[in-house]
Amino acid sequence: MHLIDGAGRWTAPPGGAGNDWVEQLRVPDLSVGTYCIPAGGVDDQSPHTEDEIYVVTSGRARIVTPDASADVAPGSVVFVPAGEPHHFTDVTEDLTLLVVFGPAYGSRTG
């Protein structure tokens, strides 16, 4: 067992950066981290080569993919398959996302 300290907890982006990503656990088959976007911020991520689950722990925004969009708030859980473009927009409250990648983030070459 391993308790993952800080996972899903808001952390202000360092030094005025737009967003903050911290990986808190990494094993070959999955990784867990926290992604934070401040209110009014812009999500500039690129599609990933791994499947991904987002759990919204705080904040409000909209997630947009080429085929759909949805409002998200605390308790929302979103699955994004590997390779699917996606962005959080309309971040109206500081957004904190617990992120689970399978396999571990960046472990597949695309």
UniProtKB/TrEMBL annotation:
<dbReference type="Pfam" id="PF07883">
    <property type="entry name" value="Cupin_2"/>
</dbReference>
<feature type="domain" description="Cupin type-2">
    <location>
        <begin position="35"/>
        <end position="101"/>
    </location>
</feature>
<dbReference type="InterPro" id="IPR011051">
    <property type="entry name" value="RmlC_Cupin_sf"/>
</dbReference>
<protein>
    <submittedName>
        <fullName>Cupin domain-containing protein</fullName>
    </submittedName>
</protein>
<dbReference type="InterPro" id="IPR013096">
    <property type="entry name" value="Cupin_2"/>
</dbReference>
<dbReference type="InterPro" id="IPR014710">
    <property type="entry name" value="RmlC-like_jellyroll"/>
</dbReference>
